[in-house]
C-alpha cells in the first residue's frame, strides 16, 4: 500500500514538473488531457464504483465550460455586447447573462449548475429505480436536448460556433506562456486533489456502500440503506468534477461549442475510462491521458488513416482487456501472487452495466 | 493512367526530398534553407471529410505547380498536412501545432464557420496567417485571416436580388440548424423587406436530418415561388428527393441553394436537381482559359471522375495569392505579407480575383447557375465584374440593424 502511495506521489510530481521537460505546445496538449482526466475520474466513480453508466457527461463538462466561457466572453467584450449577440440581432444583454460578469459567480456556477442538474436528473431516475441501460439512454437523451437547445439559441449561446476568442481572465492575458504554465500547474493540482478526495471516498464506509450498490442494489436496500441518496450524491459529485474540468478546459483551450458536449464526446469520455480500467481511479486518469495522446500522435503521424489505429486500440481493449490497462496489470499481478486462490479477479465477471 | 501514376511518383519523391531538406532546416537558420513549410489543415476524417479532402488536394496541386515553377522567393514550398477531424478543438490544437512546433509561414485550411472561429484566436495570439477558402456568413474580419471564399454580398445578396427580379417575390427559407443558415437568413429577411419580397416560411432542421415530409407539406401549403436553401450535407439528398416525390419540380418552384457545388451534385443525383439553381463565384463550366487548364490539371492529378467547384477553386487561389504576396513583400514574415497583400491580383480559374487590403477578403465575380442533367452548371447570370467584398454589409442601408 505504501509503495502504491509513493508511486502516486511520483506520478503527480512528474506531471507537475511538466513545464521542465515539455515544449509549450506539448504542455498545452497535456493540460487539455489532464482536464479530460478529471472528467474520467468522475466517470470512474459512478461507473466503476457504483455501476451507473452515464453516456451524457459531455453535458456537465459543457455546462461547466459554458459558465466560465460566459464570464470570459463578457470580460473580453469589455462592457459591450459579445460579438455573436450583435450579429444575431440581440440589442441588450439577456438577464441570465448578467451575473456571469462576476468571476466568482461564474466559477461557482460551473460547479453548482452541473451538480444541480445531475442531482435533479439523478433524483428523478434513481428514485424511480430506473437503472442500467435505461439510465444510459436517458443520459443520452439529455445530451440531445442540450445540444439542440444550445445550437438553436444562437443569439444566447453562440450557436454551433460556441463561445471563443477570449483574451483575458481576471485582467491577465490568457495567451502569455507564463499564464499557460500556471494554468497547467493549477490543473495538475486540481487533478491531484480530486484524486485524493475520490480515493478517500472509495475507501470510506460510503464508498463501500457505493460498491455494494453496484453489486446488489436490492440487498443494500434490504440492509436499511437508501441507495437513491448515495447514487444522487455520487452522480452529482461526478457532474461537478466534469464541470470543474470544463472550466479548466476553457481557460486553457479558449473554446467551447455544443459539438464538445455532444453524443460522441460523451461516449469518448466513457471510452477513456474503459481503456484505463474502470475499477481504478488511477486507471481512469491514465486512460484519458493515453487515449488522447494516442489520438494526437496517430493523427499527426498518419493524418489520412489515423482513425483506424484509434479504432483498433478500442477494439483490442474491449475484446481482450475488459478491465482496461490497469485491470490487465492487476490480474497479471494477482495471478502471479496467488495463482491458486479462487476469485482473485472478482470484478472481471461483473457486467458493464449493473 | 500512366501519367497519373508518374505524377503521383513525382509528388512522392518530391515530398521525400523536401522532407529530407526540412530535417536539415532544424539545424540551420530558417532563412538560409531552401524550403519553406506551410500548413494544410482540413478535415480528412469525420463528417466534413467528404468536402474538405478536395480542398487539400487543390492546395497541394497549387503548391506543386508553384514548386515546379521555381517556388516562392527561390524556395520550394513544403506542405505539412494535418487532420482537423471535423472537430473544432482539434482544429485549434492542430493550428497551434503548425504555428508553434512547425513554425509554418502560413496555413491554408478550414471549411465550417465553427472551425474558423476555433482557429481564429490561435492565429491572432501567435500572429499566424490563415487562408480560409469557403463562402461564409460574413460579419468577421480578422487581421490574421485572408478570406478567399465569398462573403454574403458576393453570393447571397445578389442571388436574392436576381431571384426577386426573375423568379418571384414569395420566399420560403430552409436551412440546417447552425450559424451559417441562421445568420444568412437574418440577412435575407432584412433584404426581402427592403426589396419588396415576402417571407412565407422559415424552417431549420438539425444537421444530418433526413425526414422532410412535414416541411414539404408546409411548403405545399404556403406555395412559395422561391425556396432559398441553406441546408448542408446529407440533408440535401433527402430534401430534394422527397421534394420530387411530392410532385414539386423546378417548373413549380425554384430552389436556389448556396451549399451545393459540383461535388455535392454527384452525391445528390442530377435526376432530382436538374433545373434548380445555385449561386457561386465559380463553376467547373466557367469559360476562361485559366479554368480550362485548372480543370485539366485537377483531373489529371486526381482522376477523370473528379470535379472541381467553387471552394476547390478558392483554395487553389489562396495558395497563389499567398505566394504572390510573399514575392511582393520579399519576405515570409506575416506582417510584411499582410502589408503587401492589398491589391494583389490573380488570374484565377473563375476570373480575376483581387485582395481587398482593408478587410482581407477578395473581389469576386458572382454567378448564378442552373443545374444540368450532366451534373454541371449552366451560368444564367453573372455580375459582370468582380464585386467588392463587404463582410459587414455596410453599403446596404437595410442591413444597418444587423450590425
UniProtKB/TrEMBL annotation, chain A:
Signal peptide annotation: none
Subcellular location: Cell membrane
Gene Ontology MF annotations: branched-chain amino acid transmembrane transporter activity
Transmembrane segments: 6-22, 34-56, 104-126, 133-152, 172-198, 232-250, 281-299, 305-329
Any Gene Ontology CC annotation: plasma membrane
InterPro entries registered for this protein in UniProt: ABC_transp_permease, ABC_transptr_urea_perm_UrtC, LivM-like
KW Transmembrane (keyword) present: yes
Family matches, as Pfam families: BPD_transp_2 (PF02653)
Annotated keywords: Cell membrane, Membrane, Transmembrane, Transmembrane helix
Topology versus the membrane: Multi-pass membrane protein
Entry protein name: Urea ABC transporter permease subunit UrtC
UniProtKB/TrEMBL annotation, chain B:
SUPFAM superfamilies (alphabetical): Periplasmic binding protein-like I
Cited Gene3D superfamilies: 3.40.50.2300
Pfam families hit by this protein: Peripla_BP_5
Transmembrane domains' residue ranges: none
Name this protein carries in UniProt: Urea-binding protein
Organism encoding this protein: Domibacillus enclensis
Amino acid at each position: 500500500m505504501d509503495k502504491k502511495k509513493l508511486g502516486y506521489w511520483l506520478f503527480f510530481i512528474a506531471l507537475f514538473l511538466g513545464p521542465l521537460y515539455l515544449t509549450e505546445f506539448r504542455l498545452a496538449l497535456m493540460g487539455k488531457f489532464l482536464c479530460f482526466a478529471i472528467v474520467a475520474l468522475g466517470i470512474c466513480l459512478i461507473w466503476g464504483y457504483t455501476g451507473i453508466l452515464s453516456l451524457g457527461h459531455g453535458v456537465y463538462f459543457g455546462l461547466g465550460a459554458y459558465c466560465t466561457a460566459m464570464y470570459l466572453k463578457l470580460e473580453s467584450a469589455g462592457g459591450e455586447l459579445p460579438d455573436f449577440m450583435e450579429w444575431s440581432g440581440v440589442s441588450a444583454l439577456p438577464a441570465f447573462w448578467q451575473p456571469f460578469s462576476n468571476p466568482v459567480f461564474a466559477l461557482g456556477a460551473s460547479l453548482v449548475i452541473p451538480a444541480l442538474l445531475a442531482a435533479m436528473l439523478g433524483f428523478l431516475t434513481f428514485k424511480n429505480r430506473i437503472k442500467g441501460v435505461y439510465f444510459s439512454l436517458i443520459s443520452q437523451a439529455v445530451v440531445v436536448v442540450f445540444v439542440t437547445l444550445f445550437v438553436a439559441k444562437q443569439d444566447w449561446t453562440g450557436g454551433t460556433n460556441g463561445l471563443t476568442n477570449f483574451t483575458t481572465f481576471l485582467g491577465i492575458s490568457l495567451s502569455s506562456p507564463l499564464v499557460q504554465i500556471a494554468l497547467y500547474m493549477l490543473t495538475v493540482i486540481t487533478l491531484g486533489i480530486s484524486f485524493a478526495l475520490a480515493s478517500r471516498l472509495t475507501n470510506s464506509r460510503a464508498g463501500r456502500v457505493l460498491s455494494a450498490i453496484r453489486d446488489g442494489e436490492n440487498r443494500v436496500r434490504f440492509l436499511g440503506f437508501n441507495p437513491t441518496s448515495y447514487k444522487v450524491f455520487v452522480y452529482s459529485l461526478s457532474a461537478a468534477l466534469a464541470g470543474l474540468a470544463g472550466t479548466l478546459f476553457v481557460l486553457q483551450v479558449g473554446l467551447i461549442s455544443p459539438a464538445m458536449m455532444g453524443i460522441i464526446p460523451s461516449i469518448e469520455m466513457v471510452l477513456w475510462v474503459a481503456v484505463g480500467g474502470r475499477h481504478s481511479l488511477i486507471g481512469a486518469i491514465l486512460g484519458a491521458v493515453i487515449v488522447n495522446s494516442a489520438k494526437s500522435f496517430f493523427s499527426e503521424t498518419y493524418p489520412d488513416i489515423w482513425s483506424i489505429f484509434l479504432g483498433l486500440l478500442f477494439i483490442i481493449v474491449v475484446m481482450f482487456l475488459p478491465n482496461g490497462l490497469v485491470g490487465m496489470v492487476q490480474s497479471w499481478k494477482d495471478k502471479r501472487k496467488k495463482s491458486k486462490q479462487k476469485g482473485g479477479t472478482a470484478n472481471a465477471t461483473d457486467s458493464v452495466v449493473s | 493512367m500512366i501519367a497519373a501514376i508518374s505524377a503521383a511518383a513525382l509528388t512522392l519523391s518530391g515530398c521525400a526530398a523536401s522532407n529530407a531538406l526540412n530535417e536539415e532546416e532544424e539545424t540551420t537558420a530558417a532563412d538560409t534553407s531552401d524550403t519553406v513549410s506551410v500548413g494544410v489543415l482540413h478535415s480528412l476524417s469525420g463528417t466534413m471529410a467528404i468536402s474538405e479532402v478536395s480542398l487539400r488536394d487543390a492546395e497541394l496541386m497549387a503548391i506543386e505547380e508553384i514548386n515546379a515553377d521555381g517556388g516562392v522567393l527561390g524556395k520550394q514550398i513544403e506542405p505539412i498536412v494535418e487532420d482537423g477531424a471535423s472537430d473544432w478543438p482539434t482544429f485549434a490544437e492542430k493550428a497551434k501545432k503548425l504555428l508553434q512546433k512547425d513554425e509554418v509561414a502560413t496555413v491554408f485550411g478550414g471549411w465550417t464557420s465553427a472551425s474558423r472561429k476555433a482557429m481564429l484566436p490561435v492565429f491572432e495570439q501567435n500572429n499566424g496567417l490563415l487562408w480560409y477558402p469557403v463562402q461564409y456568413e460574413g460579419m468577421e474580419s480578422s487581421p490574421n485571416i485572408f478570406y478567399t471564399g465569398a462573403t454574403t454580398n458576393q453570393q447571397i445578396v445578389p442571388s436574392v436580388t436576381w431571384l426577386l427580379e426573375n423568379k418571384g417575390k414569395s420566399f420560403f427559407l430552409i436551412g440546417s440548424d447552425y450559424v451559417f443558415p441562421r445568420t444568412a437568413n437574418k440577412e435575407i429577411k432584412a433584404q426581402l423587406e427592403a426589396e419588396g419580397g415576402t417571407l412565407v416560411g422559415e424552417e431549420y432542421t438539425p444537421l444530418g436530418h433526413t425526414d422532410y415530409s412535414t416541411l414539404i407539406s408546409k411548403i405545399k401549403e404556403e406555395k412559395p415561388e422561391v425556396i432559398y436553401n441553406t441546408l448542408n450535407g446529407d440533408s440535401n439528398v433527402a430534401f430534394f428527393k422527397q421534394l420530387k416525390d411530392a410532385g414539386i419540380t423546378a417548373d413549380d418552384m425554384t430552389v436556389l441553394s448556396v451549399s451545393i457545388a459540383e461535388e455535392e451534385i454527384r452525391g445528390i443525383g442530377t435526376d432530382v436537381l436538374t433545373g434548380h439553381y445555385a449561386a457561386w463565384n465559380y463553376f467547373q463550366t466557367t469559360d476562361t482559359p485559366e479554368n480550362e487548364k485548372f480543370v485539366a490539371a485537377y483531373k489529371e492529378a486526381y482522376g477523370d471522375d473528379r470535379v472541381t467547384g467553387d471552394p476547390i477553386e478558392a483554395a487553389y487561389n489562396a495558395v497563389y495569392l499567398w505566394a504572390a504576396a510573399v514575392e511582393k513583400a520579399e519576405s515570409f514574415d506575416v506582417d510584411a505579407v499582410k502589408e503587401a497583400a492589398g491589391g494583389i491580383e490573380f488570374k484565377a480559374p473563375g476570373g480575376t480575383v483581387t485582395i481587398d487590403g482593408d478587410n482581407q477578403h477578395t473581389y469576386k465575380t458572382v454567378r448564378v447557375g442552373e443545374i444540368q442533367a450532366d451534373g454541371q452548371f449552366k451560368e444564367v447570370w453573372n455580375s459582370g465584374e468582380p464585386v467588392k467584398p463587404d463582410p459587414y454589409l455596410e453599403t446596404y442601408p437595410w442591413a444597418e440593424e444587423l450590425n
